Amino acid sequence: MAVLALDDVVVTAYSPDPAGGADRVVTLLGPVALRIEERRVAVVGANGSGKSTLARLLNGLVLPSSGRVTVDGLDTARDGAAVRRRVGFMFTDPDAQLVMPTPVEDVALSLRRLPLPPSERDAAARAALARFGLADRAEVPVHALSGGQRQLLALASVLATEPDVLVCDEPTTLLDLRWRRVVDDLLAGLDQQVVVVTHDLDAAQQADRVLVVDSGRVVFDGDPTTGVAHYRDLMTNPRVGDVR
Amino acid sequence: MSRTPAGAPLRAPWAGPLGLYHPGTSLLHRAPAGAKLAGLAVAGVVIAVAQGPFSGLVALGVAVVLQVVSRVPWHRAARGVRPVLLTALVVGAYQWWARGWATAVEVVTDLLALVMLAAVVTATTRADRLLDVLARLVRPLRHVGLPPETFALAVALLLRTIPVLAQTTHESWDAARARGLERDPRALLVPAAVRMVGHARATGDALAARGIGED
Questions:
Q1: How many angstroms away from the CA of A33 is the closest CA of chain B?
Q2: CB contact, 8 Å: B157 with chain A?
Q3: Which pLDDT score is estimated for B45?
Q4: Distance from CA of B86 to the nearest CA of A (A)
Q5: Does any domain span residue B36?
Q6: What's the domain range around B46?
Q7: Where are the alpha helices (DSSP H) in chain A?
Q8: Is A110 an 8 Å CB contact of chain B?
Q9: In this predicted complex, what is the ipTM?
Q10: Which of A157, B32, B119, B144 has the fewest CB atoms within 10 Å, measured from its CB?
Q11: pTM (2 decimals)?
């Protein structure tokens, strides 16, 4: 398994001043110190708690304002391209991720960074689609696919290049129960190390380790049963001012 | 889905005048993408250079024949050409008034032929094949610091953005109607613009996350 390490990471951002003054600097996440080596890690937390920021740090989509994030020793700030070859990322909304008109073209787009001739790239793209049950949808316009099929396509596009790690930011939030189960089962069966941000506590229970994020801090880090219980407690007994 | 007459099946959103790839096995589908693009470029030059209404009618005839050969359904071609037809008719009416019927016929047929030919090329050629050709064509730009893959990807994204823009505008229009604000242009333009900016940012994030354009 890859080693994902966050060393005293803090992420800050400018935020408009409600009073109309100069932008303020707010802390979105941190300080966070983590070392992730488990095969399945779930990250849970309320909306706006910083869990998506945490996920985006792992792929270099967000760079730390201070501290360091490394993947097998590769620094996301210095070796971004190499990190992204190892760490795939799946978004909540597949429409944000799919950039080509048809499924086979979208998977082929991912494969362009591999030195493959067009015919082999096409075959590899079709094989990736077949793996996710989308072989017969290869040339259907992406907008004609159902939400669940689009999420499977997003997954196929990311996994086509065989990254070592897959980071998923709420991959099932927009799906109905049936598709949620399909995607959860697929993620569970992957050979890759998977870090998944989720609101699905049943899925979180299946992880090897659970991180609970609240107000930009990792407030729990441990076994799934205790982690999920901690999160439930946090959500059912919010502190005054926590709910916005 | 776009608006259709009551009782009629819904159609997928309009994909812009150049349409989307339509799977098939016709002669044009099997032709190399480079040859089709070169043919389109030559046709563009010939249509622009040739004078008179007869040349325009011939060009339009060739475009119609190629449309038939491609076996792409007519409703797709018609949807792509319809908005251009409106422009062509307005321009044609002006040309008739200003320069006579011969010029009007030439302008209208030239415009329709060019759009139909371009639509046939995009309907019979997958976007990634176009990407390959474009990347090859602009390879010399590498010497001035422009990676050919990035250039080709930008063109592909431009084509992909046309149907997204159409769909976003359509959804914003529906939302404005649902709120009874269909007469207020701000209710259409502001959300459509905000959503397109959001889409552009999300697309940028998605490309970055997949490491596309980095190598």
A1: 23
A2: yes
A3: 93
A4: 26
A5: yes
A6: 13-125
A7: 51-59, 80-86, 94-97, 103-111, 118-131, 147-159, 177-188, 201-205, 224-236
A8: yes
A9: 0.73
A10: B144
A11: 0.76
